[in-house]
């Protein structure tokens, strides 16, 4: 084989295997057999003339030559995709697929609807939405954009601050009628709490009072859960009091199915951020979705947009 056998198909396969570290995972992603993935890699290595990957029974890793080839291959694929975007742009029809990862409950209740509106505006753009509260490796999973609640530490991604998510203490009218309505933070000690088991520090409520004083109140109950939608159901069912994002329950508050308690006391807000894979930030359709989400997410109840820097 010679350099003419270095095809984009083989380069794409190599890049995804390098990122995912698994031939079988890439085969599933591309909808092809694992033997086809193996053949693409073998043919590419024969064309290049050096081993690009080392394989063991447990993992696939880049060789030194493979690491250099991977970095250049990513740039080649990005340029090819951008060239296609520019060509399609002359016809005014952005196309292709965007992969987005989003915190589960936020995605179900709000982001999915925003994506519907985005696709109505750009009907040739496909969106693959993955809903998870796990912090996934965006490059490894082939994700372009991620929406995440909470502090972030991944400095390798481009970050856009979308705002702060306001939190409230809420309960159902039936629960409050049966157990009484707390009027001060210490009153919470005699109540059932609905806790998020996947949130660090959920056994303690930090409240700021109307005069700026801080209160730390132990918080526990018989029901703990790791998904926001299940917590929402538990609150409506009268299982207890819960600290929750306003966007999770705003419709229930409006309908009178839930009530805010200790309204003069505030819970710390949670940052909402967008992560963008740097190599994907220049792709036209990704830029369109990023700009659309930045514009629209500020209209979601309880999301306070970041203040412009002075």
TrEMBL record:
Signal peptide as annotated in the record: none
Recorded superkingdom: Bacteria
Presence of keyword DNA-binding: yes
InterPro entries: LysR-type_TF_proteobact-type, LysR_HTH_N, LysR_subst-bd, WH-like_DNA-bd_sf, WH_DNA-bd_sf
Tagged with keyword DNA-binding: yes
Annotated keywords: DNA-binding, Transcription, Transcription regulation
Residues in HTH lysR-type domain copies: 6-63
Ranges that cross the membrane: none
GO molecular function, one term: DNA-binding transcription factor activity
Similarity comment: Belongs to the LysR transcriptional regulatory family.
Record's function text: Transcriptional regulator of the ttuABCDE tartrate utilization operon.
Protein name listed in UniProt: HTH-type transcriptional regulator TtuA
Organism: Rhizobium mongolense USDA 1844
């Amino acid at each position: 084989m010679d350099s003419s056998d270095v095809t984009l198909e083989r380069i794409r396969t190599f890049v995804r295997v390098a990122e995912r570290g698994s031939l079988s995972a890439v085969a599933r992603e591309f909808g092809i057999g694992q033997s086809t993935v193996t053949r693409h890699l073998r043919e590419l290595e024969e064309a290049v003339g050096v081993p690009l990957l080392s394989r063991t029974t447990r993992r696939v890793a880049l060789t030194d030559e493979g690491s250099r080839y991977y970095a250049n291959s990513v740039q080649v694929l990005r340029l090819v995709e951008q060239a296609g975007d520019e060509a399609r742009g002359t016809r005014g029809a952005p196309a292709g697929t965007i992969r987005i990862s989003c915190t589960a409950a936020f995605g179900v209740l709000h982001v999915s609807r925003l994506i519907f509106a985005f696709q109505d505006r750009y009907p040739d753009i496909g969106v693959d939405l993955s809903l998870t509260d796990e912090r996934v490796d965006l490059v490894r999973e082939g994700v372009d954009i991620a929406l995440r609640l909470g502090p972030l530490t991944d400095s390798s991604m481009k970050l856009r601050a979308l705002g702060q998510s306001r939190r409230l203490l809420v309960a159902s009218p039936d629960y409050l009628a049966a157990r009484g309505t707390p009027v001060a933070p210490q009153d919470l000690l005699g109540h059932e709490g609905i806790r998020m088991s996947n949130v660090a520090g959920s056994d303690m409520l930090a409240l700021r009072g109307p005069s700026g004083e801080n209160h730390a109140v132990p918080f526990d109950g018989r029901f703990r859960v790791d998904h926001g939608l299940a917590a929402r159901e538990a609150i409506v069912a009268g299982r207890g009091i819960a600290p929750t994002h306003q966007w999770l329950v705003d419709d229930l508050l409006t309908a009178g199915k839930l009530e805010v308690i200790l309204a003069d006391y505030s819970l710390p807000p949670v940052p909402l951020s967008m992560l963008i894979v740097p190599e994907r930030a220049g792709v036209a359709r990704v830029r369109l979705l990023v700009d659309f989400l930045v514009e629209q997410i500020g209209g979601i109840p309880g999301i306070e947009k970041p203040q412009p820097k002075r």
